[in-house]
Amino acid sequence: MLLSIFSYLYSICLSIFFGSSIFLGYITAPYIFKTLNSRNEAGNMVGALLNKFSMIGYITQILMAIAGYILYLNRGGMIIFIIPLIILILLLFSENLISKKMNNLKKRMGSIDEVSKEDPKRKQFNSLHKWSVKLFLLNELLCLPLFYIILVK
Question: Is-above-0.70 flag for pTM?
Answer without folding.
Answer: yes
